[in-house]
Design brief:
By secondary structure, this protein is α/β, with parallel strands linked by helices. Helices cover 48% and strands 16% of the residues. It contains nine helices and five strands. Strands 2-1-3-4-5 form a five-stranded mixed sheet, covered by helices on one side. The longest helix is centred in the last third of the chain and has 21 residues. The mean pLDDT is 97. It binds zinc ion (ZN).
Length: 211
């Protein structure tokens, strides 16, 4: 059997099992989704949102990209964010990075990854530059990468707070809460590193007062 054919066989098994344990499972799920969480995670195959949080289809709305970045010109991410916040009314937005992230490691090198990846990784270099003193005081390379992973997550959460999408929901509905988490590939555990709620004030330069 070819590798991709195994996926299709496994899919049939899974669908059958779900119906065996709950005959109305797909019928119910197909009618509506009311997830409480938006997950912005890394594309890394080892960090699947549902599995590591013990959640089921229908519980988490997911966006993933290399190194879980929130970039204000990324129409894909902003569409997901706007839909999740304004239509699905999610209560929590989670940015989840992970230790051992290839994107973080790559951004710390001087290697030319060609234009598109260079452009993407430059956003992580910007985070490094903002925290250069703290990072360069850490001599151990892995520890430095781990710290940049945490700082990156924090910066991406702050980028969320700068959007009118989040600020409008905070002002009108006192939600969603924003969370920055880091997942450990070596122990499977998630470490919360940063939080922002509807009562948080950010640099006034980024605050809209006529939402
Ligand atoms: Zn990653």
């Amino acid at each position: 059997m070819l590798s991709y054919e195994k996926l299709l066989v496994a899919n049939k098994d899974w669908a059958n099992k779900m119906v065996e344990s709950d005959a109305a499972y797909f019928d119910r799920l197909s009618r509506l989704q009311t997830p409480e969480f938006l997950w912005i995670g890394c594309s890394d195959s080892r960090v699947p949102a549902n599995e590591i949080t013990g959640t089921q289809p229908g519980e988490i709305f997911v966006h993933r990209n290399v190194a879980n970045l929130v970039i204000h010109t990324d129409v894909n991410l902003l569409s997901v964010l706007e839909f999740a916040v304004e239509h699905l009314k999610v209560k929590h937005v989670i940015v989840c990075g992970h230790y051992g992230c290839g994107g973080i490691k790559a951004a710390m090198t001087k290697h030319d990854f060609k234009q598109v990846l260079n452009m993407w990784l430059r956003n992580i270099k910007d985070v490094y530059r903002l925290h250069r003193d703290e990072l360069e005081a850490i001599k151990d390379q892995e520890k430095r990468e781990n710290r940049l992973t945490e700082l990156n997550v924090k910066e991406q959460v702050m980028h969320l707070a700068k959007t009118s999408i989040i600020q409008r929901a905070w002002k009108k509905e006192q939600r969603p809460q924003l969370h920055g988490w880091v997942y450990g590939l070596k122990d499977g555990l998630i470490k919360p590193v940063f939080e922002m709620g509807a009562d948080t004030h950010i640099d006034p330069l980024y605050e809209y007062d006529d939402l």
